[in-house]
Amino acid sequence: MGVEDNYFQISDLDANTTFYDWVSKENSDIIEKLNLIAVYGATAGSSNVVVAVGSTGNSYENGDVFVDLAKTITGITISGDLRLLSNLIIGGTTAESIVSSVNGSTGAVTVAGITGATGDAGGTGETPDPIYLSDNHLINSAFDIWQRGSSFTGTGSIYFSDRWARFVDSATVSDNIITTSLIERFEFASPGITNSSQTTVLGDPVYYTSINMGLSSGISADAHFIGIENRIEGGDSFFGEDMIVDGYVKTSGVTGATLNVYLRRNTNGSTYSTELFSDTVLAGTADWTPFLVNHTGVSTGVSFDADGYTAVGIKLNDLPTGQTLDVAYVRAISTQGVTVTASPYRPKIDPEHELLRCSRYYQRSYELAENAGDITLTGTTPTWSSIRFVATPANEYWYTFPVKMRKQPTVTFYSPSSGVENDGFNKSSGLDIRLSSGTIGYLNESRSHTAGADTLAVYPDPKGIRWDLLSGIVVFDDIFVHYIADADF
User: Fold this and answer.
1) How many Cα atoms are found within 13 Å in the side-chain-facing hemisphere of 158?
2) Residue ranges, CATH 2.60.120.260, the chain
3) The whole model's pTM is what?
4) Which residue among 5, 35, 400, 433 has the highest number of C-beta atoms inside a 10 angstrom radius?
5) Which residues contact 102 (CB under 8 A, 6 or more apart)?
6) Superfamily name with CATH number, domain 151-351
């Protein structure tokens, strides 16, 4: 039959069929098979398929069927490869390539050989994701670590939650910019309980910070500066970089507040410059308001010494006097690519991991829930939070910090028995070291101490503390002590 598919073969014909078997076939058998050509679209009125039947006088053999595609085909969907063996002609113009260029940033497509009413550029594609997002630059950005306490009333510059400080600057030192102040730690939920009381602040932080200030009537945006800020070691952060700052704010007064986010570059601990973000933060009065602001840092740098740092903060000059501002989980992230319009994923922060990061700048032996000077004995037995050493004939003890500090710290120490500063607890005598004079220790050696004299001397280093045992101790005495080491900016 000339059709290369067994479906169209005339039945009962095989390799053993004789010529007589073939010629004896009735026309009805053959015509039935010819009618199946309609499966290929060879039907009357088809615009895409042209069917010709040979007859006397045309170019085909009499009785042959010729099936061809029309010169113009409409409504074709191609599911496989499209292969061109000749030129592509679009609108009468020969195109060497369908697409001549694609804009990698916007996705806009330029099609060769087409010039229509809207030009030769295709539509803008979907906005691509940023090429790069850094980790959060801020340590303790969720306000989970409060080693210095949980309530602060000072009216000047002051640290509160670790790595967070209120910065107050004035053109005149005698200005009383802040007349009253209260910075407090508040809790989203009870410690150790999954936070189910709020779902707005993502990342499930434990605490947030609350600031209330009374401001003098003469405050000037040009002459004064007040802000809460997180300080990043090194003054060259974000030079020429795109960045975002995001977080949550709300107010508890009768009005809201519009506040600026800023970068403050401190070159040597005292000299600084400030960059205000062009986008502002609106703190509403109802519930937590998420914010995200974009900024590009200045592209030129200056020299910074070991005390240089970059602060990311929220300026408080425009906070109405007496208004309370609550702030939760603030981040600073470097970006590269298009402008970020929505906050990236916000993970829950592990407080123990964050505590180690804070310990480069400020660390202590107390547990997070304990305060400086707390009594940490169970009966007469010290808890695990204090450090322990045994007096040796050398009368000294070398303690290594769990994290090397930024610089040589200032160290204070306390007795875990009484909370008295500049003393320790002599467990062997059952008394503070200063009170152990006259008691008997190992080998019947008598302890001695002069009232008012030091019992221990400390020699700090970024790597640790050397303790010298001066009085009230004999060899093999069991000594316990708490310390606080501060190497912050």
Assistant:
1) 16
2) 151-351
3) 0.74
4) 433
5) 108, 109, 110
6) Galactose-binding domain-like (2.60.120.260)
Contact 209, 184 (CB under 8 A): yes
- Tens-place pLDDT, residues 226-273: 999 999 998 778 988 999 999 999 998 778 889 999 999 998 878 889
